[in-house]
Sequence to fold (309 residues):
Amino acid sequence: MSSSVSASAYRCMRLIEIEQQGYSDWNALTQIPQASSSPVFSRVDDVEEKTEKNNLEQSLSQQPGTKKYLLMGDVAMDGARLLDTIILENGDISLILDKTVFHPQGGGQPTDLGVIRAASAEFMVKMSKEDRTTGIVQHIGSFSYGGIEDLRGSSLRLLVDVTRRKEMAAIHSAGHILDVCMVRLGFALKPTKGYHFPDGPYVEYEGTMSPEDRETLPRKLTAKMREIVSENIATEIRFLPKAEAQTLCSDADLTMFSERALVRVVAVAGGWCPCGGTHVGSTEELGPISVTRTRSKKKTLRVSYEMSA
Fold:
């Protein structure tokens, strides 16, 4: 065990063969309450699904660190391997795996929760986070039974809490729809920050608007967002060469990607942008969304929203 990610674990991650993963039937695999058999996002047809899965494999092969199969919406996986462990100061344990389906907290979206299982052990994941420099994802939590030695050399099953995943995906998707509605209403303000947590989600925009527009904005945005929800627009996910992604998302800053990188871009309600988060399959899955208030400070406009039960 180590207090930091070992060099051997990192080298191992770079050498691990990328395995083609199928979509697991998580109703049959998991014991997580209220699991759903509906996909996290829609796949237009078998040809496009296969193409994007192959693009995911190519994208993952270019990246260091933990291979993140959550990028195609997976919520269950077999065959993961333990590479390293970290004992944290508070007594929690961090597991470093070769691959994962857990969404690491970041990009304004909360962490996935769930379990990692071996034949004689179960580890409860309460936080996953990624080192953006190395690409390594830590799975932080504690054992329900068994221990670290029970995971070593074992084929591990990863199971995401589907109910929470879908809730967080919905809040995140609603933030993307808010961006689309701002454009539809004629406000050309650039989104700069998103907070897609249940305790008061919001999106911040660079720029200002008149007091009159601000006063009517919540009502207009609420009506427009509910209109888009009723349109049942399918979410699309693509892995594109950097140049194509930049053309599609002209305002996006893609300087973090190498010139050879495949960039994951997402269209929620038809609005394309680079995004590593999880999303609903179509807008109708969201239900009513309400814009609750706006706040303007200096040259930043914050728009807060909530999901109706």
Remarks:
- The helical segments are 7-15, 26-29, 46-62, 148-151, 162-184, 211-230, 242-248.
- The radius of gyration is 20 Å.
